[in-house]
Amino acid sequence: MDTHLSPAEIESFYQNGYFAPLRVFSTQETRAYRGCLEELERRFADNPFKMRTDAHLIQRWAWDVVHDPRIVDPVSDVLGPNVLLWSLNWFIKEPRDQKIVTFHQDATYWGLEPHDVVTAWVALSDASEATGPMQFVSGSHLEEIRQHTDTFASNNLLSRGQAIEGDIDEQRVVSAPLQAGEMSLHHVRLIHGSQSNETDDRRIGMVLRYCATHVRQTKVEDTAVLVKGEDTYQHFELLPEPENEFGEIELARHADATRRMSLAIHSKDHQ
Fold first, then answer.
1. CA pair distance 216, 148, nearest whole angstrom
2. CA distance 113 to 163
3. Which of 84-88, 99-103, 184-188, 198-202 has the lowest mean pLDDT?
4. How far is Cα 228 from Cα 224, in angstroms, rounded to an integer?
5. Are 230 and 210 in contact (CB under 8 A)?
6. What percent of the chain has pLDDT over 70?
7. Cα 127 to the chain's mean position, in Å?
């Protein structure tokens, strides 16, 4: 199986700032990974958000996913041969919960520079039009970074409820519905968002944030995982695979990594 993008697909990504859909997992694999996630949520029901973030540091199934060549090879086609995983996060909309994601650009608050950063958004449930799939403003990654307002709206899944100031050109907005087991790729500067889930099932997005090894974290001393090639820059503390699931060392490493990422994302709160 060829796990790489074609030259035409690579060119499409560079021009539009995204590419979708790409089939990653079979139906059986997707169900199994969803089961792993939901078992993790049940195990840590008191704080599932914290524990599912960077789950690859405490569970082998998630470690295998972030290294899967069906994901990493397309990412390396647009980032180059040496690739780090910065973080694993989730955008989950519960059935009819009215949660949204306002139009925003990730480059404004992650602290990663230069902007050789790509998000792989993997659907572990159907992300049909009715679920509020990803919407991209095509080509916006080639423009200047827009000003954002922090709304902190209660129905916004973003950490600060950040939203683009000014108007969005609706004629350039492209919806990217995905079937379970498919993924999209999008550039860190691309304007994107999504509407609410109007279905009776969860809309589960596994969000893998990759960067080229020359990228720096400008806000904090940060961590990452090498997923392909070699890292000659050493801008991040590279973390190893978990030897023992939920082991004491692994849990401590996970807590430290998620703390650092949170400090970077919420740095404006601490100024």
1. 22
2. 21
3. 99-103
4. 12
5. no
6. 98
7. 15
Asked whether the beta carbons of 262 and 50 are under 8 A apart, the reply is no
pLDDT band at residue 268 under the 50/70/90 scheme: low
What CA–CA distance (Å, rounded) separates 144 from 48? 36
What was the pLDDT predicted at 269? Answer: 47
pLDDT band at 270 (very low <50, low <70, confident <90, very high): very low
Give CA–CA dist 251/45, Å, rounded.
16
Rounded to 10 degrees, the C-alpha dihedral 187/110/112/255 comes to -120
Tokens 């899967």 label which residue?
A: 68
CA angle (34 as vertex; 30, 40 as ends), nearest 5: 150
**DSSP symbols for the chain:** ---SPPHHHHHHHHHHSEEEEEE-S-HHHHHHHHHHHHHHHHHTTTSHHHHHTTGGGT-HHHHHHHH-HHHHHHHHHHH-S-EEEEEEEEEEE-TT---BEEEE-GGGTS-EESS-EEEEEEESS-B-GGG--EEEETTGGGSPPPPEEE---TTB-SSS-EEESS---GGGEEEE-B-TTEEEEEETT--EEE----SSS-EEEEEEEEEETT-EESSS--EEEEEES--SS--SEEPPPPSSTT-HHHHHHHHHHHHHHHHHHTGGGG-
- How many C-beta atoms surround the C-beta of residue 14 within 10 A? 13
Q: Which long-range contacts (CB under 8 A, 24 or more apart) does 247-250 make?
A: 247/58, 250/57, 250/58
d(CA 162, CA 106): 10
pLDDT digits (tens, 9 = 90+) for 190-231: 999 999 999 999 999 999 999 999 999 999 999 999 999 999
